[in-house]
Amino acid sequence: MIADCALLSAGLLESELFGYEKGAFTGAYTRKIGHFEVANGGTLFLDEIGDLPLEVQGKLLRAVQERVIFRVGGVDPIKVDTRIIAATNQDLEEKVRRKQFREDLYYRLNVVIIKVPPLRERKEDIPLLTTYFLNKYAARFQKKVEIKQEVYDAFCQYPWPGNVRELENLIQNLLIVSGGNAIRLKDLPTKILAQLRPSPAETVQSSYKELKRKVVADFTRDFLIAMLRKNRGNVSKTAREIRLRRTSLQRLMKRFGLRASDFRNLPL
Questions:
Q1: Domain coordinates of the chain in residue numbers?
Q2: Phi then psi for 76, rounded to 5 degrees?
Q3: How far is CA 87 from CA 80, 141, 207, 228, 255, in A?
Q4: I want to staple 1 with a disulfide (CB 3.0 to 4.6 A). Which of 39, 46, 57, 165 is the partner?
């Protein structure tokens, strides 16, 4: 089981982790089993543990320390035997010093530490991850697309501040807007191209107008992708939110090779 501690409010996260009883709150029409019970005898992965609200940390500590949970609205203790794996990109020791993370929970979780270096420090993984995400999303979008070597080289020069998630999101976006059977250097966003070391000839040949047009096009494409993803491909809703006529949005989508159907089953 996987629980993302950064996505939900304290109340919702507590319900997801520990479950709730019928009538525990408005809308609780039936009993719900939480992640701890579902993962009983197995493993529960707590992603972004550094974002876990303080009010939930105490209940998580009890579950880890005593192997007992209470459903929201419940009074009967439920024994669980669940292995916990937690991940974060934050400095938990610093959060403990700032009283933003419970010290006792930190030491309970801090049994075996596996530090994963940022993607920029393991460039040898970039081609492997790129190929993995390409195959994954090409199958989902039913496309046959290859990535040219020049793109792999560019990826290895980029620092990836968003790490693996940024790489995965980029591959998704490139596949969505790809109109051909290959992803080339010209298809990459400006932020990646800006990291490349151009030759003097290339620098001279790139006029101000050309660079400006490239930056504006990249921003427009990325903005449309983000809004269409947010609205699950609903063109009318997206047009209203960005204050464009539906026909104008459709023209932009056609220009950038965006299809509403590609966004309907994507994660937010």
A1: 2-109, 118-197, 208-268
A2: -95, 130
A3: 21, 29, 45, 29, 40
A4: 39
Dmax over CA atoms of the chain, in Å, equals 74
Residue 260 · residue 233 · CB < 8 Å: yes
CATH number of 2-109: 3.40.50.300
242-256 per-position pLDDT tens digit: 999 999 898 888 888
Phi and psi dihedrals of 78, rounded to 5?
Answer: -120, 120
Q: What would the 3-class secondary structure string for 136-202 be?
A: HHHHHHCCCCEECHHHHHHHHHCCCCCHHHHHHHHHHHHHHHCCCCEECHHHCCHHHHCCCCCCHHH
The helix (run of H) or strand (run of E) holding residue 84 is strand 83-86
Do residues 210 and 244 make contact, with C-beta atoms less than 8 angstroms apart? no
Q: What is the pTM of this model?
A: 0.62
pLDDT, one tens digit per residue, over 193-219 is 877 765 444 444 556 777 777 778 888
CATH assignment of 118-197?
1.10.8.60
Q: Which two tokens stand for residue 191?
A: 């932020």
Q: Encoding tokens for residue 193?
A: 């191209």
Neighbours of 144 (CB within 10 A): 8
pLDDT tens track for 14-64: 999 999 999 988 888 999 999 999 999 999 999 999 999 999 999 999 999
* CB 158, CB 192: distance < 8 Å: yes
Residue 18 Cα to chain centre, angstroms? 24
Contact 184, 148 (CB under 8 A): yes
